[in-house]
Amino acid sequence: QLTLVESGGGLVQAGDSLRLSCTASERAFYAYDMGWFRQAPGQEREFVAAINWSGGNTYYADSVKGRVTISRDNAKNTVWLHIDSLKPGDTAVYYCAATFDRDNGMHMYTASYEYWGQGTQVTVSS
């Protein structure tokens, strides 16, 4: 059973940058593709970014492309999401997720992931 723990959220100002972290409990972290999603109040959970098991392929939602970078370090069992130029519209709970079904091309769908973290709140004030 893979456990994911997110951290790094908080209250920030518009225009700030933030780096979210997600650390996995399992040493086989390298075997999982990872994704970041977010959910704003009253909204559905939406895809933000994904990275494949090796870190060789990354994917971004059009809504954040150019402001977001996903990266991972398999030796540290950690995946990061760096967000620049934060906007009030980025306010949401951010979740990381993992799937053992690697490189399946379905990284933007919540149903593709077997494991989820508890989420970390990001609030962007104007």
Structure write-up:
With 126 residues, the chain is an all-beta fold. 0% of the residues lie in helices and 47% in strands. It contains no helices and 11 strands. It has strands at residues 4-7, 10-13, 18-24, 33-39, 46-51, 58-60, 68-73, 78-83, 92-99, 115-116, 120-125. The strands form 2 sheets. Strands 2, 4, 5, 6, 9, 10 and 11 form a 7-stranded mixed beta sheet that branches. The N and C termini lie far apart (40 Å). The relative contact order is 0.32. The mean pLDDT is 95.
Beta percentage is over 45%
Radius of gyration: 13 Å
Largest sheet: 7 strands, mixed
What string gives the helices and strands in order? EEEEEEEEEEE
Tally the helices: what do you get? 0
Q: Helices and strands: which structural class?
A: mainly beta
State the distance separating the first and last CA atoms.
40 Å
Mean pLDDT figure: 95
Unreliable runs? none
The geometry reads as: globular
| Beta-strand segment tally | 11
Helix content: under 10%
Quick summary of this structure?
By secondary structure, the chain is mostly beta strands. 0% of the residues lie in helices and 47% in strands.
Task: Outline the secondary-structure elements.
Layout lengths: L3 E4 L2 E4 L4 E7 L8 E7 L6 E6 L6 E3 L7 E6 L4 E6 L8 E8 L15 E2 L3 E6 L1
Parallel strand pairs: 2-11
Antiparallel strand pairs: 1-3, 3-8, 4-5, 4-9, 5-6, 7-8, 9-10, 9-11
